[in-house]
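name: query_chain
kind: protein
chains: 1
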Amino acid sequence: MEIMQHDTDEIDINFLKLFHILLSKLHIILLCGLLFGLLAYGAVYLLITPKYMASTMLYVNNASTKENTTTITQSDLYASSQLVNTYSAIITSESFLGQVIVDADIDLEVEELAKQLEIESVNDTEAFRVTVMDEDPKAAARIANAIADIAPTQIPTIVDGSSVKVIDYASIPTDIAKPNYRKFTLIGIMLGLGISMLVILLREIMDTTIKSESDLEEWNLPTLGVVPDFAEAKKHKSYGYSYGNQNVGR
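structure:
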């Protein structure tokens, strides 16, 4: 039990020593974190083109299920929400996007424009949102509004007994949607802190040199001799050790 207690105490002392080492190098760790954060921000700023997001909201009217009733049932809502998938396929079709490109006056291929669109149901309701991501905020708004203008007239010609109404038109975005500069900067800071601490700890663990008498005491080794600090002794115009008022040495 004593040996286990001794081993445990020794481990605790080692961890405490490592903690004090990290604490003594805190300024280096913080500097590395700041440096990595700035590098991450600069890399994202220079290498990734910012994109803006504009959205329009549309309403799906499932008229075919309401011909003989004035009430809206759960099945009606389910049928309307399922129509969102159908409308999504129509909106991303080549003919529909071709008309959007003409009306929005943009220089994009149909395949490129399709990759910039995201269509999703709003909380499983009869409403759905069309989101456009583009490097030009004005172009993103034009594309979204062109979709909002074309959908109510073109979709009913394809899906019988259905209609689409515009809830919200898109406005020109002012904030960058991607990339998230704050996120990448925080990741850089965390990497800088982690890497700097790892390097400091590895250097300390791998360093087996004896620097002081306390290092010998940790290994239970006797002190055979001590080399005096000649630089310190020179300041006092003496070499070696001092005993009382007499200097041993020169």
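note: Residues 2-44+181-207 form one domain.
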